[in-house]
Amino acid sequence: MNIEKLTITGVKAIVNMHSNIQDVKNALEQKINLYEYSDNLRPITLNLSSVLRVCLLAGLSDNCKRNSNDLDGLPVDSTPYATTFFSKADIGSMFEALLKLRYHDVDDVDWSIPANVSKAIGREILRGRDILMQEGGIDAWLCNTPLRGGGSLTDEIPELNLRIGEYENGMDAFLDINTRAIANTQVLVAGTTGSGKTNLLAVLINQIRSCSSDSHYPVNFLLFDYKGEFSDPDNAAWLEKFDTDEKAILRPVERPLPFTPFTDFTGKPINEVNMYATTLSSALRAIAPTTISAKMENRLAVAIINAYKVKNFKPITFKEILQYYLAPLPENKRNESDSVTSALEQLIRANLFEEEDRIDLINDCYIIDLGRFPKDEILAKAIVYFVISKLNNIYENLPKQAVNDERVELRHFTIIDEAHYMLGFENKPLQNLIAVGRNKGMSIILATQNMESFKSKHFDFYANAQYPLIMKQQQQNDAVIRDLFGVSGNGLQELKQAITGLQKGELITRDATNAALGIGKTWQKIKVTHLI
Prior knowledge:
The protein is 36% helix and 12% strand.
């Protein structure tokens, strides 16, 4: 068959590809990493695409004669290679040329069939694995991961078109996350226990990382793991699907989170501290387990300001806030507890945060394990609130994201599972992150059990969501459904019946095209890919 018909379009990995190259991955990482790291640094973890690409190049460098028997016994998986595997730096044309060179005289294979090309690529990867694992093989190769690019690399902003499953007609279902045509990148997920919500979150993270982690513009993520599923050692294999490892997991129940939750106001005007103190005292009132009066809240704000003044506007601590909250009281009254002292004492005992920054939250992937904290009590709420506040501080100091004619750069995704615990009060950091994050390349996924949780008097979460993904619901709210999908009358009843009939792993989302044209159904049903 004509070798010129060989193209890399539609090719897929072979079965068990990851386990087949794990030894190479380990050997490469051992070669490029230091023997020891301090607490604030992590060893380099190579993503799967980089290792596969090195193996493929090594295999294609061998000029031994190929034959059709090379392709025997290589079953093709249903999983395609990462989106950037062939597109990065336009390397696909080189791979195509090398494959044609090595297989030009194998004329008993139909090269127009993608499965045969997939097998040839798989065979070359395995050949490269064997070459690299020979003594001294790796020393002949250089692993180089380019840094995030500047203006000259904007053409290489990855296309974040997330394949999350299939429509009812069998067509692939995609979420366009970063073209310039969409209004924003926020995602809302609502699904009751057993609806498949955890798998959907995993699919979203997997696709975000698969599309970007091997590019010049990797999209990192921060996941608040309320149920502890993603942090569970029994589920460690999940981390490979997100191109990260167990070092991504932060467990504040065991050791403090490696950064200060408080803003550094060094060199800033006192008015900024005053506004911050008011917001922070209101937040503590909202997340405290008992009522904090307006008088206590005002005294708390003054204590925060005084603590900053004494520290010359450097980041403060909960212990210092408590100290200055008690300072105005007579000596004999300072041992009497009120709602504020009780809340601050819980935060101090829990020792949730370090007093200085040891990591940068957006330049790597992290999963914060909240599984052992009561979900609706102060410690879990404080962690989420202050980490979101920290992200705001980071983003304020970043330049706008890179753009080109078609796409915008995304730097980071924040995923809050069980988000309803953080939506019932005026959560200023979260609202600000949703409202302005896109200009700095940040997006957010909020997941909750019931769609009603997104109907807040404090903030319109629906208006700021590009994609509402509605799974099985225990109860439905007509007003919410009308707001989300623009339906009424018979259309509303039809949609409610469709939501009632959803099975595990199915969801309904808005059909933006039909909604804009005013024709057909304004929604579509999707069967989500099973990943975990």
